[in-house]
Amino acid sequence: MPVENAVEEALMRSIRIPPRPSLLVDLQRELAQSDPSPRRIARIIGNDVGMSGALLKLANSPFFGAARKAKSVEQGINFLGVDQCAALLTGLLARQAIDGKESDLNAFWEVSARRAQALVFISRKLRIAPPDIAHTFGLFCDIGVPLLMNRFTDYAETYADACHEAELPFTAVEDQRYSTNHAAIGCLLARNWGLSPDVSWAILLHHDYRVLDDPATDDAVRSLVALSLLAEKGIERFHGRRMSCEWEKGGALACQHLGLTEDETADLLDELHEAFHHER
User: For the segment 92-133, what is each residue's pLDDT rounded down to a tens digit?
Assistant: First the structure.
């Protein structure tokens, strides 16, 4: 609709959502081929040392359980599969596009990478959601945070308040102060960058836990939202924090949607915790 488009464009200009990187356009063009070539994908990213190194690290990660070690980028792509490789590279391009000199975002990207690892781990264990979709969602679900941080000088304070809000949805705290929130901004970026519709919708809804009990919402989107709560709980535990407001708000609904008992949830979080420590 014209009015919606005008509001969207004004918001994108205000928040400074970065345009889709040309490297991502090249990568998506190759992936759109009937038979994407690992060799051509390796050539696309071959000149970027950071991307090549990150891809090899992921290919040899315990989160993917590779029996053999990848010794080249092309071999790494073959081990991971082109879709999983694309998920990783899209996340790296996001970091390049968003990282600014004004704020130190290392901690943010570290948590994003860990969330992506957790979502891949859990999605594979439960056989819910393709790992590359889970990975992309994990990397991008909070991508609106650094964009709002760059736009609003007091955003760090708002973010902390939202993290400790026991009743209101996380995004409601942001909406009250800025008339927008990181989930809406992240969804705009995901759509602008041509990411999967499931990922875009899950980003938009990942703090709205009512959707977990709403059959009108696509099941793939609900599963991603549920998986993100388990991942978040695992990350909180890894950092030695017992209390998670988000888990208190939506954890029971997430487990119900995924068909997990309390014991099964505990076992899964134990396995995730071990995988995190093994990765160190």
Answer: 889 888 876 555 788 899 899 899 999 999 999 999 989 889
Nearest partner of 135 among 58, 210, 71, 68, judged by Cα = 58
Which domain range does residue 242 map to? 2-279
Radius of gyration of the CA atoms of the chain, in A: 18
pLDDT digit string, tens, across residues 171-190 = 999 999 998 999 999 999 99
d(CA 196, CA 178) in angstroms, rounded, equals: 27
Single-letter code of the amino acid located at 164:
H
Q: Decide: helix, strand or coil at residue 191.
A: helix
Tokens of 43: 């050539």
Q: Name residue, tokens 């007091």.
A: 154
CATH of the domain at 143: 1.10.3210.10
pLDDT of residue 7: 60
Measure the CA–CA gap between 19 and 13, rounded to whole angstroms. 11
- Give dist(CA 4, CA 12) in Å, integer: 12
